Amino acid sequence: MQIARVLGTVTSTQKEPSLRGIKFLVLQLIDDDGRPMSGYEVAADSVGAGVDEWVLVSHGSAARQVPGSEQRPVDAAVVAIIDTVSIENRLLYSKRDQY
Amino acid sequence: MQIARVLGTVTSTQKEPSLRGIKFLVLQLIDDDGRPMSGYEVAADSVGAGVDEWVLVSHGSAARQVPGSEQRPVDAAVVAIIDTVSIENRLLYSKRDQY
Amino acid sequence: MQIARVLGTVTSTQKEPSLRGIKFLVLQLIDDDGRPMSGYEVAADSVGAGVDEWVLVSHGSAARQVPGSEQRPVDAAVVAIIDTVSIENRLLYSKRDQY
Amino acid sequence: MQIARVLGTVTSTQKEPSLRGIKFLVLQLIDDDGRPMSGYEVAADSVGAGVDEWVLVSHGSAARQVPGSEQRPVDAAVVAIIDTVSIENRLLYSKRDQY
Amino acid sequence: MQIARVLGTVTSTQKEPSLRGIKFLVLQLIDDDGRPMSGYEVAADSVGAGVDEWVLVSHGSAARQVPGSEQRPVDAAVVAIIDTVSIENRLLYSKRDQY
Lengths: 99, 99, 99, 99, 99
What we know:
5 copies of one chain form a homopentamer. Chain A is mostly beta strands. Chain A has a single domain (2-98), classed as CATH 2.40.50.220. In chain A, 0% of the residues lie in helices and 49% in strands. The first copy, chain A, has no helices and 7 strands. Chain A has strands spanning 2-11, 23-30, 36-45, 54-59, 76-81, 84-87, 90-94. In chain A, the strands form 2 sheets. Chain A has a 5-stranded mixed barrel with strand order 1-2-3-5-4. The first copy, chain A, has a two-stranded antiparallel ribbon with strand order 6-7. In chain A, β2 and β3 (36-45) form a beta hairpin. The first copy, chain A, is elongated, with a radius of gyration of 14 Å. Chain A binds chain D through residues 1-3, 31-32, 46-48, 56, 58-66, 77, 79-90, 92, and chain D through 7-16, 18-19, 24, 26, 28, 38-43, 51, 60-61, 63-64, 71-76.
């Protein structure tokens, strides 16, 4: 999985019918110093993540291991909203500190 | 998923029989500032996307989660035509503005 | 899928038994200006592609969606010989012009 | 698989229900000279790896070939704690030497 | 598939039980001029490859299409020992010439 920050959203009317009702988030990948990396990802959201939150994103067939998404053509999914990231016993990120 | 713009098409007569009738689009990946990225992708189209439209492309086994494509040897598929992309509450792209 | 040109072949005697009879092609990936990209791929061929032809190559589990290859340990397959590539309404490649 | 060193942990309360009880490790990939590579990975742990240990990490659908994880949306898993890495008959790493 | 040279081995005692008895090889990827590329791979071996031999390595779910490995958490496997690599009708590598 990768650590990412929610940047925004993508909307679409004309799409695969199985994608109706899916929320698409634009994610910015975060490196292990907490800095934004180049590149982004569009992922299906099933955990209710909002803009600026840090999340875990799973890629590939893992993105379909979410109840109801088994046969959806998605290759990335937000699977968790992150509470804390600790690196070398140092707290890199804490959701509580953001609010 | 990645955001991409439809650049063109690929045609082929001699191919895996299961690929007959599939439209192959050449896609240019778009970064989160709306600029073209280096690299491209050839993807199967099932949503009727046309040249210059912005689309969502799914890679890997997700590309076969489209009715009728379950057993086709495709590793990328256009799964949605994008209406809007919003980044940090700013509208990066709107299909309506293009026409 | 990626566009590639057939560069050569790989032969092997000592291999997974399920790979007997499979032709392995060395492919050079081609960018969307028709220029060779760095990097290469070895792919199973099921469409009879020859050296210098432009082909479509599928990666990952898609490579096993070819009759007879469902249980072969291949992660790339040539699935089509390309007739034409059109980019922005310009003909980038035409097989007919090569001969 | 890649060789990685355990850097830290990620915690999350709000997540896919199937991820409850999974320990998420932050991993730093190691190159074949034993040096840290740029980039990191968050992986599910099933072997009880601790900070600073060298491990093998598997990506993609392989990460779900762990008893109990078959239907979890994880795309990376620590599958082994490394005892030794030998390169060109030289011992690059030995777990025993670390303690 | 990629062409690689066998560099060394990884050993592990504490691992997923399904990985017992699997030999892990450290592989150096080789480019299409026969030169070592940066980066490496750890792959399960099922064909008895030895140090310095050139092999074909398959990634992803293909690595589990080897009898007995269907449910092992491996994402790369050596599937063939290479006899020859021919590029543009030139013999880039011949196993026979190495001994």
